[in-house]
Amino acid sequence: MRLSNHISRRNFRGNNDDGVVITLVAVFILFVVGAMAALSIDVVTLYTARSEAQLAADAAALAAARALANSGATSNSAYMPAAEIMATSIAVQVAQSSLVGGRYLIAANNEVAVNFADSANNACVSAFPLTDPCVTVRVQRTDLPTFFARIWGQTQSTIAATATAEAYNPSGGTGTTATPSLPVAPTCVKPWLLPNLDPTQAATGTTAIFDANGGIINPGLVGQEWPGPPAANTDGIYSLCGGDCSVAGGGITTPAPGAYYPGSAADLYPTAVQGPPGCSGTFNAYQLAVAGCVPQPITCGVNSNVNIDQLTYTANTGTRDSDTAQAAECLVHYNGAALDTDSIDLASPPFEFVGGNGNPVASSVTKDVLVSDSLVTIPVINNPPGTPGYPVQVIGFLQVFLNPQSATMPLAPAGGKSAFEIPATIVNMVGCGANAAGQPILGNGSSPVAVRLISPSTP
Asked: Cα–Cα distance between 192 and 381 in angstroms, integer?
């Protein structure tokens, strides 16, 4: 009897112990689950904020590099100091418009830092031994709130991200190089094959734009316009084959500064091109290639052979000059009066573009704009001693601004080579030379100065 009571009391105490253990385990599990939940919130918050910071840094660096690419600074290093000031402002604006960790970045709190590397201090030299400018943007937040870490008294954490972008000009600014650079392959290139002649010089001039290696001979051409003063080229852009572009018809003439040969459709715009709405209903394929954007990348260097347009025109079908003028008017939003087109401000470098009355974005009229439909890229070809043969080789590109003073188009200046001339200002010069080879670097839209991220993500 006593043994039975003793066993019963032991079983009762054992049951009580089991209940206490279960309770303690439940409380412990609840604590662990809660701690893990809090920890997961911290981890997710940190990773999300870190990804947002990287996106902000990438966008800011690319925006700054694109500003440098369109400033002329990669073609004339004298523009670089002012271009870096402008690019810094743009990078900060882009970064500050980015949400990181639930709020926008604040540059005044040292959350955005912008640094440059150029020919004087090239931090990109290990991977890219060129004089092209690099811009590095670092964004950070030092006050990101924590949850789990509060147990140890840490209420805030720090996240940061860095991105470096380059504005790549294969000509490397000025001078010559014995080592061929990688070629570039911009899109939206206009079908105008420009001989390698300084377009601002008089018609009898023979000075080239690029040397044999693709180096820029005269960086002072950036910002220059043709037609120019009486002692210079008094003509604008016009076609070197008038009504007959065929070999048999003898319509192709010898090279002249600032004048182009119409490019072959098969080489420069092999597929159908969609022109801008409202003015392309009756345009032919060539005009659509001028007024619209040809998605076909055009490379320079070894693998860049293209042909001149060999079409024959009759008296009733017009000429490439008249075709070009009509299409260019559509491209630059010219409606028949001065001030319709965008203009370029050359008062102080780097260049700034001003929206004209015909700009399709109403809020851009009379305002500074970063991009303009008037900014186009033209391929530059090897300059033959006589009339060009077939095919010709692209050795570089000129980026020019059409109708820079927003004048009445088309012009018929003092030279009078054509009744359909278009004035232009040089914004960038990109030389590849005849021997540039390798995988071409794609340009960003209409700019032949390629913009690319070149650094891995690093905190």
From this structure: 10
* Crossing angle of helices 80-96 and 2-69, rounded to 10°: 150
Is residue 365 helix, strand or coil?
A: strand
| Bridge partner list, 299 | none
- Dihedral of the alpha carbons of 316, 321, 323, 327, in degrees to the nearest 10: -160
Question: Which residues are paired to 195 by β-bridges?
Answer: 381
- What are φ and ψ of residue 195, in 5° steps? -60, 155
Task: Check if the beta carbon of residue 240 is closer than 8 Å to that of residue 263.
Answer: no
Residues facing 100 on adjacent strands: 103
State pTM to two decimals: 0.82
Q: Which residue has the tokens 């009571």?
A: 5
Joined together, the tokens standing for residue 379 give: 């391929």
Q: How confident is the model at residue 208 (pLDDT cuts 50, 70, 90)?
A: very high
Residue 273 main-chain phi, psi, to 5 deg: -115, 135
Residue 211 phi, psi (nearest 5): -85, -175
Structure tokens at 343: 């203009």
Determine which helix (DSSP H) or strand (DSSP E) holds 47, and give its type and residue range. helix 2-69
Of 306, 304, 68, 300, which Cα lies nearest the Cα of 182? 300
Instruction: Give residue limits of the domains in the chain.
Output: 2-168, 173-448
The closest of 441, 428, 438 to 216, measured between CA atoms, is 428
What stretches of 223-284 show up as alpha helix (H) in DSSP? Answer: 265-268
pLDDT digits (tens, 9 = 90+) for 125-170: 434 444 578 899 999 988 887 666 555 555 667 888 999 998 888 8
Radius of gyration of the chain (CA): 31
Number of helices (H), then strands (E), belonging to the chain: the values are 5, 18
Three-class DSSP category at 79: helix
The b/e string for 163-197 (b: 16+ C-beta within 10 A; e otherwise) is bbbbbbbbbbbbebbeebbbbbbbbbbbbbbbbbb
Residue among 16, 74, 37, 182 nearest 449 (CA): 74
